[in-house]
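Page 37, top half.
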Amino acid sequence: MRTLKIMVLVFLALLTSCVSQKKYTDLENQAERYRNHLKLCENEQIIAETNLANEKNKVDKLESQLEYFKSTNTNLLERLSDLSVVSKTGAESIKKSLEALNEQNKYIKNLTSSMQRKDSLNLVLVMNLKRSLANFDDEDIAIEVKKGVVYVSISDKMLFKSGSYKISDRAKEVIGKIAQIVNDHNDLDILIEGHTDNVPIYTECMRDNWDLSVKRATSIVRLMQTEFGVQPERMTAGGRSEYLPKESNETKEGRAINRRTEIIILPKLDQFFNLLEPPK
C-alpha cells in the first residue's frame, strides 16, 4: 500500500511539468485510477480486520465452553472423592465421563487453534494475491474467501480466445504471479475448475462444454507445473461445464461472467478431513 501512495505522488509530480494537453489528461487519469485503487485497498483491509474480529469472537465462545467443561470436571472429581456415597458402578461411570470430557476439551482446543491458523493464512493469501495482481483489471479477476478457502476467479476473455483452451500471453503473466504465491505455501493444495456458459460447442477436439471446461483447467495446471514449478501432486484439474453459473445465462453479461476459471487454494485434503474427525 505504501508503494501505491508513492506511485500516486510520482504521477502528481509529473502532472505539474510542462506536457501536452493529451499527455496531461492521460497522467491525470492514471493518477485518479491509482487513488481509487488505494481507497479500495484500504477498504479491503478494513473488511479483513472486521472478519478477523468476528473469528476472534468465535474463539472466545469456544474458550467459554472450555471453562464450562473444566468446571464440570471439578464437580465430578469432588463427587468421585467421596466414594462412601457412590457405588462402584457409579464411580466407574463418572470416571468414563471425565475421560470423555477431557477428550472433548482437547478436540475443541485443537479445532480452535486450527481455525485461527486457517483464518490468518487466508487473510495473508488474499492480501498477497491482491497486491501481486494489482496491475490487472478488477473486472477480469476476483479474489475472495468462500467456505473457508480462497477463490481466485479469472474471466475467460483474459485467459483464452472464444471456444479455445490455448492460454494467452497476458494470462501467463497472471498465472505466474499466482504460482509464485502458492509456491510459498507448500502446505496448501490447488484445485483448478473450468466453467462455461450454456452456449453449445462442438468441434473436432471438443464434444461439448464438459470437454471445454476440463481442457481449460488442465491447460492451467500444465502451465503451472511446467513453467512455474508448482508440484503436480498439489494440483487437481476439474471441469464444471455450464452447471455452476454465477449469473443467469439469459443475458450476454451473465454469460460473460459465467465463462471463467477458478483457482481454489485450500488445505491439503488429508489434513482437512483429519480436522473434521471427532475424538474417539
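Page 37, bottom half:
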Amino acid sequence: MIKALIFDLDGTLLNTLEDLKDSTNYALRYFGYPERSLEEVRCFVGNGVAKLIERAIPDGVENPDFQDCLKLFRENYSQNMYNHTAPYQGIMELLVNLREKGYKIAVVSNKFDAAVKELCDKYFTNLIDVAIGQMDDVPKKPAPNGVYKAIQELGVDRKNCVYIGDSEVDVKTAYNASLPCIGVLWGFRDETVLKNEGCEMIVNSTDAIIKLVEEL
C-alpha cells in the first residue's frame, strides 16, 4: 500500500525549461560562447546545473571559463527562475487530491537545494512535506541517497513509497532506491527514453497517477 509519493521537480511538477535556457544563454553570452536552443537545453538537463553547463559550454569542464560560467548561471537563475516557470497542467489538482487522500509528498531533485526549496515553497505551499535538492554531502541522482533522505524525513517505510519522474535519471534513481517508478510524458524526455531504461508504468495525464498509486 502506497503512503508516500516522491516526485522529481523539473519536467515532472514544474516546466522550468524556458528559464533554464535563458540563464544558460545569459552565462554563455557573457563569455562570448554560442547560445543553445530550447531543445538542446532540454537534452542537457537532468543531472544538475553543473552538468547542464558542462554540456552547454564548448569543451565542458576543460574550458577555463567553466567554473565562472557555472557561477554566473547560478546567480542569474536564482534571480530569474520565476519568469516563465509554472506547474504543468493538472499538477496543482493532483497534489491537492493526494493531500486530501492522506498521502505524504516529497520532492527530490538534482537542482541545487536552495532553488528546490524556494520553488516548492512558492508554487506548492503546504502541499509538499519534504523538498530536497542537490547538496555537497548528498550524491546526486541517480544515486538513491536523496530519496532515502526524503523517506526518512517523511517517516514512512520504503515499501510504501513510489517514485515519479520524467527522465532516464529518474528511472535509474527509482531502481537504485528499490522503488516502483512512474514515468510521465509531459516533461523533458519521450516515451522511448523511459522504456529503454526499463520503466513499465508510463502515464500521460495526472489522473492516471492517482489510479496507478491506488493499485500499487
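Margin note: The longest strand covers residues 104-112.
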